Amino acid sequence: MTLLASVLLIATLISLVHSDIWWVQALSFPRIGALILIGIVMIGAVPVRGVWRGALFIMLIVSAALQLWRVYPYTALAPVEVAKARFPSGARDPTCFTVLGLNVYQHNRNYAATRALIEREQPDILLLMETDQPWIDAPHANPV
Q1: How far is residue 69's CA from residue 55's CA, in Å, rounded to a whole number?
Q2: Which strand (E) or helix (H) includes residue 77?
Q3: What share of the chain is helix, strand, coil (3-state, %, to 5)?
Q4: Start-to-end CA span in the chain (Å)
Q5: What is the pLDDT of residues 96-139, one digit of tens each?
Q6: Are 78 and 38 in contact (CB under 8 A)?
Q7: Radius of gyration for the chain, computed over Cα atoms and rounded to the nearest angstrom
């Protein structure tokens, strides 16, 4: 149990290091999984007795605290950092542009729904992915 707690603490500390080494960067991704594993190890460590019990829980608490510190900004509990822009009823900010990206799935032939979405959103830039020749011809075949 102490060895596992030590590995979790070391992996957590390494994940805080700014590095271009791939395996160091890879340790930054499974933070939620690491928190779950830390919790499981903490529950499993409850019956542990002996001189290492205090060190075991300190390592697990430090690991959990560091992981939570890195996860917290991405939770609903963190304060909003960028306020939503507010414009009068339907007006658009002239300094911004909109982009609509759609993966239409080339075997999909529901051109009308796609056209309706494009008409409703009125994007400045439109990106359609997985198009084929029928998708290219569709806007010209049935003009709205």
Answers
A1: 21
A2: none
A3: 50, 5, 40
A4: 67
A5: 888 999 998 878 888 889 989 999 998 999 999 988 888 888 76
A6: no
A7: 26
The amino acid at residue 43 is I
Q: Report the candidate in 100, 27, 92 with the shortest Cα–Cα distance to residue 63.
A: 27
90: DSSP letter: T
pLDDT at 141: 53
Let me know: does 20 contact 75? Beta carbons within 8 Å.
no
Q: Enter the tokens of residue 126.
A: 């439109």
Q: What is the pTM of this model?
A: 0.55
Which of 56-60, 65-69, 108-112, 136-140 comes out lowest in average pLDDT?
136-140
Helix (H, G, I), strand (E, B) or coil at 76: coil
